[in-house]
Amino acid sequence: MGENNEYYADKMRRLLENRDRQQRIGLQNPAGVHESEPGEELDEELQEQEDFSFESTRRPEKKKRPRSFEEKYQQVREAEAEARASGKKRKYSLRDIIVSCVLVCGILILGAFCVYKIFFVISSISVEGNELYTDEQILASAGIEVGANIYSFSSRIAEENIQMYCPEVDYIKVKRTPPGKIVVTVVEENAYFYVDIHGELRALTADLRVLGGVSEEEADELIELRLPTVGRAVAGEKIVFRNGELDYTFEVSKAVSESSLCDRIDKLDLTDQHNVRMVCDGKYLLKLAEYTDSAAKLKIADKILENEMFDNSNKASIDLSELSETGVIVDNQLDLDW
Fold it and tell me: Cα separation of 22 and 197, whole Å?
């Protein structure tokens, strides 16, 4: 292209020089002969140059040759690499992270719900150690039912409810065994005493915990107990006195329940800690006086009552106020009906 331009530029320069030279020497064109003007000749030359330049700059159309298998495979690999690169960028975007977290949490919640509702369902409940209460009474108190979820209740609350509605139960243990077994173990406590509270007979344990009400026939099998003024008596709880804590009452009642004379004692008076007394076998008045050393005093009384002199029906008063010196007074006029 550059060589052609130089060629025509040189030719145009020669034409211009020739025209100037003809003008200088005054040459005339022969008559009747048409001579083209220098400008026309120059225009023709320029037109030829333009046509040649256009033709020379046109590139011949190339025929498309079919792509080989290697080229096609390379193109597919490049497309896959571009797709992977694009995917890696999306993975680290904030939106993708949030969506992924939401989906994972949803799946976990759904799975936990299915496990909770389907796999941990109570299929069997057993009660062990109960005699005074039926299985139905204990389970109704606990609020546990077959078909409920094994973790749908609190073991501590269930034990407290059983203690409240079944006061003669001393020990309670609710045990879960996944996937669906419940075992309720109870130890029922024996009643040793009964007390008249506002005209109602209530049974008491060895540590003066309030049990249920008792009839007069049932009370005949228990020790009649006289106590200081009672402030509160709630089933399943220890009795509360109006004057506050009176520890001596619990100490003496515990000693009586553990004594070998327990089954022979009919009455126990704890209204005065300095004048503790009790009736044994319906005819012997045991005077402990001070509440201290109650267990030792009862052991001495047991030894004394083994004597043959007590094989008759005579009433007697046994003074146990001093451990080192005891006294026995036979008195058939003793008033033992308190």
Answer: 158
119 and 111 Cβ atoms separated by less than 8 Å: no
Residue 259 tokens, joined: 């004594």
- Render pLDDT for 263-319 as a digit per residue (tens, 0 to 9): 999 999 999 999 999 999 999 999 999 999 999 999 999 999 988 777 788 899 999
Prediction pTM value = 0.56
Alpha-carbon distance of 186 to 131, in angstroms, equals 10
**Is the CA virtual torsion 308, 310, 314, 319 positive or negative?**
positive
Pairing, β 284-289 against β 316-319: parallel
Distance between CA atoms of 80 and 211, rounded to whole angstroms? Answer: 82
Closest CA to 312 of 335, 292, 332: 332
Q: The dihedral of CA 47, 50, 53, 55: what is its sign?
A: negative
Residue type, position 248, single letter:
Y
314/337 Cα distance (integer angstroms): 16
User: What's the CA angle centered on 100, arms 96 and 103, to 5 degrees?
Assistant: 140
Give tens-digit pLDDT for 179-196: 889 999 999 888 999 999
Q: What is the DSSP pairing of strand 169-177 with strand 181-188?
A: antiparallel
CB 129 within 8 A of CB 155: no
